[in-house]
Amino acid sequence: MAVDENTVRRIAHLARIAVTDEEVPHLQSELNAILSFVAQLDAVDVSNVEPMTSVLPMALRQRADVMNDGGYADRIVANAPQTEDNYFVVPKVVE
Amino acid sequence: MNAPVATHNLIKGATGDWEIVIGMEIHAQVLSQSKLFSGASTEFGGAPNDHVSLVDAAFPGMLPVINAECVAQAVRTGLGLKAKINLRSVFDRKNYFYPDLPQGYQISQYKDPIVGEGEVIVDVPDGRQIVVGIERLHLEQDAGKSIHDLSPGASLVDLNRSGVALMEIVSRPDMRSSEEAKAYVTKLRTILRYLGTCDGDMDKGSLRADVNVSVRRPGEALGTRCEIKNVNSIRFIGQAIEYEARRQIGVLEDGGTIDQETRLFDANKGETRSMRSKEEAHDYRYFPDPDLLPLTFEQAFVNGLATGLPELPDAKKARFVSDYGLSAYDAGVLVAERETADFFEEVAKARDGKAAANWVINELFGRLNKEGLTVATSPVSAHQLGAVIDLIGEKVISGKIAKDLFEIVWTEGGDPRAIVEERGLKQVTDTGAIEAAVDAIIAGNPDKVEQVKLKPTLLGWFVGQVMKSTGGKANPQALNDILKDKLGIE
């Protein structure tokens, strides 16, 4: 699998990373280098192997349904560039 | 599989008949104290960003820990939908950017949902019953809320809802009309409320629907569908489907093609319109969330939850039909809400079920609807209504007086039996007293006595007169017999 220039632009846009036209060929070759490195794994037949989700044989820990957090709106919005009555204020987004 | 086309659902276009095909994704907020992956409150409302933990606001380094009750609620819902419960499921990240999604992704389930295939039996208002297949149910986080009308140049973001657990319930495209779609949502809502896994409050956004609509010529392959996002009332779901189906038929009949797209329902205009901005966002790049291991549990856990499930509407309805002899329609009306069904059973206890259903549905519901009340706020208790029915059964009062008595109990309260005593509402079964009243009417109206011999239907006039003179308390059957006898008609 190899990526073309349009794919690079598309991925960058989806990740909201500004990429200039000059940067695209460089990023494309870097991505393709990574992909071809990883592609070595294709040599191994894993058709009968379940995907590994963790290196440790443990189950997902669950917590009891108890309300024990929140109540500090001032801390939640403390780092926001703009706030109003503990709301985050962002540029208008409306359909 | 091509099911036979049901002709009653077809809609006429300019160039022939069309069939609507509808599938739905329902987002149902899970009833729990705290959020899916954090300990912040799920309570509706609250001051801005007050019910938010550092996890919900996606502060760096915060890790999600799953709420065991939300898992149980999803399993209960799956059982209520007669669905396959998956003992192993996986959480994935669904990536997109929006101001009310601080993580930049929603934790959801993609390939391996907690609940697999199931079904819902739906009663359509025209009397038909359809089965709507459930494709899956998965757990996911709700997003925050953007408010656009408080500030002219800006949107305000409140994350109180961010991270609340949602169950996304995906149906198969098994509905063929807006009526069927509305009946499906109604039924699903009833099941969720019986289970206690979602309050079903559409006004508060606890239940929201994305509706997939396409049209086709009867018997042909599925057409291209459009998805109408976030329709928040059952009535709007119907309107959105009607509008969208006619729009698509219009485009196709003019020789055009349908673009698969996301559309928004405008409740003010009653129409759907394209949401172009959502198009590119459809590349969600799902991948397993590295912060969460697969969710696993034993079959014994599922069995334990199954044991604790309440009687569900379908079973309750069947029992009402078989045990109380109710019609399927009446039973359906009574089981639509659990509180209503409980009220009915209280009234019907050791009484005639049909009479109880009749009084609950026709008299009580009629009156409650008129006053905007529910069984929970009803001024007439099940005990009082039961006493009224007993008095009719014992022939102490007539059906007509019973309605007056109901009215008295509704407005003034009190024990129906005592009211009947105090106000002398007992019906007269003493034939001597009735005969005297009949004689008086006959004596005073010789002309009518002549007429009734030629026109027996005039008997009703005599009944009315005697009832008037006895204050409606004459036993109707006894009165009829005596009148016929004295007037010499069969």
Order of SSEs of chain A, N→C?
HHEHEE
- Strand elements of chain A, count: 3
Average pLDDT across residues of chain B?
91
Overall tally of domains of chain B: 3
Report strand % of chain B.
Answer: 15-25%
Beta-strand content bin of chain A: 5-15%
The main pleated sheet of chain B reads as: 9 strands, mixed
Separation, N- and C-terminal Cα atoms of chain A: 37 Å
GO molecular function, one term (chain A): asparaginyl-tRNA synthase (glutamine-hydrolyzing) activity
EC number (chain A): 6.3.5.-
Subunit structure (chain A): Heterotrimer of A, B and C subunits.
InterPro entries (chain A): Asp/Glu-ADT_sf_sub_c, GatC
Q: How would you describe what is shown here?
A:
The complex is a heterodimer of chains A (95) and B (490). Chain A has three helices and three strands; from the N terminus they run ααβαββ. Chain A is an alpha+beta fold. Chain A has a two-stranded antiparallel ribbon with strand order 2-3. In chain A, a hairpin with a 2-residue loop joins β2 (83-84) and β3. Chain B has 490 residues and is α+β, with helices and mostly antiparallel strands. Chain B has three domains: 10-305, no CATH class; 311-423, no CATH class; 431-487, Arc Repressor Mutant, subunit A (Orthogonal Bundle), CATH 1.10.10.410. In chain B, 39% of the residues lie in helices and 19% in strands. Chain B has helices at residues 68-80, 178-195, 234-253, 299-307, 313-324, 328-335, 338-348, 353-371, 382-393, 399-412, 416-423, 431-444, 446-454, 459-469, 476-487, and strands at residues 11-13, 16-29, 66-67, 88-89, 92-95, 105-108, 118-123, 129-141, 145-147, 154-158, 165-171, 207-216, 226-231, 262-266, 271-274, 287-288, 295-296. In chain B, the strands form four sheets. In chain B, strands 1, 2, 7, 8, 11, 12, 13, 14 and 15 form a nine-stranded mixed β-sheet that branches. A three-stranded antiparallel β-sheet of chain B has the order 6-5-16, with no helix packed on it. A two-stranded antiparallel ribbon of chain B has the order 4-17. Chain B is elongated, with a radius of gyration of 30 Å. The termini of chain B are far apart. The mean pLDDT of chain B is 91. Chains A and B meet through α1, β1, α3 and β3 of A and β3, α1, β10 and β17 of B. Chain A: Keywords: ATP-binding, Ligase, Nucleotide-binding, Protein biosynthesis.
